[in-house]
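Hey, can you fold this one?
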Amino acid sequence: MFTASSPPHPFRGVLYLVVALLLFACLDVTIKHLASRYPVPLVVAVRYIVHFSLMTAVLAPHAGMKLVQTQRTGLVLIRAACLLVVSLFMTLALQRMPVAEATSIQFLAPMLVVLLARPVLGEKIGFARWASVIAGFGGVLLIARPGGQVDPIGLGFVMCSVTAGAAYQLLSRVLIRTESPIAMLFHSALMGSLCFGALLPWYWSGVSPSWAEIAMFLSLGFTGGLGHLLFTMAYREAPASVLAPVNYLQLLWAGLLGWLVFAQVPDQLGLVGMAIVAASGVFIALHSRAGSDAA
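Sure. Predicted structure:
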């Protein structure tokens, strides 16, 4: 997304990313609260419908047909479907797991991307990155160990989310060469609204939300949409090699919000596992940056 034709603004890019990651953590905390009272398909549907409505209202008057124009529509739609799977299974996981632990395990996705980059993208994987990926998986085992705080079913849900997330990230790396980030985001919002919106007649019942909960439902599209927009803008302002390590700040946001809102604090081994996952991911990002600089 960063190109030589546009002047770099690394500080601005980092600032955009820090705010985007805070919004993603707020999104997860809000989803966890709402999913404890309402059906998961309803929560996900409202998130995408509000997200789609905001994008249409704010961007359509200026972007016009650029919102929907794609060159490889099939892959764009597959990418959007992967994001829908991530959203569904991550919401199911947050029903059963603390936010910090679920977020930590979700960061296995970029490590899977490292493993898949060789057969899919033809990238080389050195010993250091192999060792970091193995260490990251070891950290997840500490978080999800038997007798720990992680619900086994929730763990299964988050691992499904991780798998779909890796496919989503790989497709993003392939498509960013030809597709507009805003168009890809719009197609994801559109597909989510159509797919999950079609399920609403079966789930639109039960407890009537309070005004505070209505505000929370509406905030899902705002925090998700604005977070993804700032995330995209960050990668337009600074190279990916600069921003990649910053992504792990989301673990800090998730831990703080989980503690403040739900009074959930990981146990000691869980904290060690989270630290190992974060350190492994940062090392992979820095090692990738060093390799690209050397090239």
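The chain has one domain: 10-294. Let me know if you want another pass with a different chain boundary.
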